[in-house]
Amino acid sequence: MGDEIEATVIKMDDGEGNIELSKKEANDVLAWDKLQAMLDEETIVKVRIKESVKGGVVAFLEGMRAFIPASQLSTDYVEDLDVWVGKELEVKVITVDQEKKKVVLSGKAVAREKEAEERRHRISMMAPGTVLEGVVESLMPYGAFVNLGNGISGLVHISQISQKRIKKPSEVLKEGQKVKVKILNTNDNKVSLSMKALEEVMEEAKEDREPQEYTSGESVSTSLGDLLSKLKL
Length: 233
Prior knowledge:
Shape: elongated
Largest sheet: 5 strands, antiparallel
Number of domains: 2
Strand content: 35-45%
CATH superfamily of the largest domain: Nucleic acid-binding proteins
CATH architecture of the largest domain: Beta Barrel
Strand order of the largest sheet: 5-4-3-6-7
Radius of gyration: 36 Å
Number of helices: 4
Number of strands: 12
C-alpha cells in the first residue's frame, strides 16, 4: 500500500466511475520506449543468451524477446549456435519494431567497434621513422599495401617504392614478398610507409664507408728530371 506504479488505462466505466488499469501494458510501453532510445543512442548493453533457434539465438532485453542472427553474433563465422547458450554478450539494438513485436540485437557491431578502437590505439603508438618488416599483401596502380601484423596494414605509395621511376608497383614488388619499410606518418589513422627512404639511407651509409682519396696539393711525378731538380749537391 502506498507504492506508486505506472499503469495504462484499458477501460473506463462512466456508470460506476471505476477505471481498469493494466500495469503490464504500461510496462510494455515503457520497455518499447527504452528499446527505441537504445537504438537511437547506440547504447551498448549486456544480455544473456537463453536459447538457440533457427538462424540465431534468443535473449531478453527490458523484458522483451530479442533475436540475434547468427551473422550478428561475432565478427567470426558462427557454426554451432548451441555453444552460445548461457553466455553473456555485449550487444547493440539494431532493430525495434513495436507493431511486429520485433527486436534485433547485434554483438558483431560491438566487437567491430572494439577492434577499431584497438587498431586506432596500436597505430597511435607507431612512431614516424621506425623501420619495420612486413609482407606485401596487395598491389594497386597507386602503390602497395604492406601487412605489418596485428591487423595493421600500411600503404607504400608508388612514389615511395623505389628511387628509380617505375610505372607500376609490380615492376619491383610481388604479393607475399617480405619487405622492410619506414613509417612516414600515421595521419587520419592511416599508416604511410616508404621503401625509398631506406634506399636513401643505405646509399648515404655506403658513401660514408667508401675510402676517400688523399691529395697533398702537390703533383706527383717520377720523371728523372724532377728527381734531379730536387737534389742539392
